[in-house]
Amino acid sequence: MRLLAYKPVITIRAEKRVPDLANLQAICSGAAMAPARATRQALIARLSGYWKMEAGNALLIPALILWLSDARISWLTGFTLIPMIALLVLGAIYWKAKLAQIETGSDVEPAVRLIARWQWPLLALSILALATMVALWIEPSLAAGRADQWSATVAASLAILEYVNYYHRQLQHFDHAPDFRRLVSGRGWRKSQLRQDIERLG
Q1: How many other β-carbons are positioned within 10 Å of the β-carbon of residue 77?
Q2: Which keywords accompany this UniProt record (predicted)?
Q3: CB 89 within 8 Å of CB 95
Q4: Is-contact 152 80, C-beta < 8 A?
């Protein structure tokens, strides 16, 4: 009789523990998934800004140069704009492809292969742009004026910086706190994301 009276107590306690365990698992699962969703959304927002910024700069910077120089630029300065604009456009294509990869799972390989094919031509154009800029300062008669010289300087410098930033080492750190902390901690310039994708293609 004592066993029969005590048995229902054991059964009731066992039944109570099952839903408690299930609730705990659900809570833990939800807590683990929330940061992942937040991280993914933050990455999507950041990449969305990247490709729009690069595409916008491909139009805005040349327009700004023309405005500040009163459209008085030599054909040599016009040449220095070419690699700068091309690198900004390819940057927009790359970040748009990376965004689509995260949002929809699409393949980023075609965009990476396209950009990889332009690496050496853009290096040659960027070096020529830099040499052109130096020539305009050494021989001022080649330039349409001081504004023209500065326009070529800006365009050629940006071309070189963008080339390094995309094809070799990430130079842009101001817009992402972890990257900035890495830089100031003395761990150096990290390999660019595009460089890593190119190397994965072999």
Answers
A1: 28
A2: Membrane, Transmembrane, Transmembrane helix
A3: no
A4: yes
**pLDDT (average), residues 170-198:** 67
Query: What pLDDT is recorded for position 190?
Result: 79
Tokens read off for 174: 């101001």
Alpha carbon distance 149, 125 (integer Å): 18
- Helix and strand numbers, DSSP H then E, in the chain: 7, 0
Q: What single letter denotes the amino acid at residue 21?
A: L
> 83 near 126, Cβ under 8 Å?
yes
Distance CA 57, CA 64 (A): 10
| Predicted confidence (pLDDT) per residue in 109-142, tens digit | 999 999 999 999 999 999 999 999 999 999 999 9
